[in-house]
């Protein structure tokens, strides 16, 4: 006879669940409000009215934004920066981390010490701006990619993960005549899928949300990223500055619905991609924490 043991709900659990529910609702409420405003029909829209379910649904704001040249240019710029930046980030981070795990690498400790030093001390905005300017990268997408090919935190975490991989497999492959590149592509990379998935998500979100560097280095409005375009629409309240007129006759949607729709469109790709990487991401967040 089997018995089902149920854990009693303590006072701490009840308070904990209640607080987590309230915090989750507080985080979810602004997103639902913006989504509701973006889907509200212009005929029933009331400025700054609090409603989570539109009285009348409409995709007019999304059609208006997607038909504009400024949004198309910003979307293309952001996709290129995210794709190229993420790919290069993964290549440079994992290859350098693999090199730092090799004891045969000359001056390995000194190189690793420089990595840790850069984690503690940063050059700052002015030296970075001067470097980008001297390299002739101003008003170029590469100004947002090349200066951040990797970072100290990512290198340290990926190196710790590679150190935790079974050395017996790597040594056996080398005894069988496998080269360093063969070990990296045939053993290290397949065993590093959780780390790859986690850091692909980290790097992709970072590049997709690029705002300050894009505002600093991209002077041509046709090369703006989505975040800069959304900032111009939401904070500056200027559709004309963003290259998008807020009023094109009576058929145009209200400017508030346009701004809300632009916010939803800017975060939608990450929301779509995340569920497919969630399985590996849950494992990847623990990389380097346990060695065995």
UniProtKB/TrEMBL annotation:
| Membrane topology type | Multi-pass membrane protein
Domain of life the protein comes from: Bacteria
Q: Where in the numbering of this chain does the ABC transmembrane type-1 domain appear?
A: 75-276
Subcellular location as annotated: Cell membrane
- What is one process in the GO biological process aspect for this record? transmembrane transport
Q: Enumerate the transmembrane spans.
A: 14-33, 45-65, 77-98, 110-129, 141-162, 183-205, 258-277
InterPro entries given in the database record: MetI-like (IPR000515), MetI-like_sf (IPR035906)
A GO CC term?
A: plasma membrane
**Principal subcellular localization:** membrane
Q: Which PROSITE patterns match?
A: ABC_TM1 (PS50928)
Q: Which UniProt keywords apply?
A: Cell membrane, Membrane, Transmembrane, Transmembrane helix, Transport
Q: Name one Pfam family in it.
A: BPD_transp_1
The entry's family comment says: Belongs to the binding-protein-dependent transport system permease family.
Q: Which protein are we looking at?
A: Carbohydrate ABC transporter permease
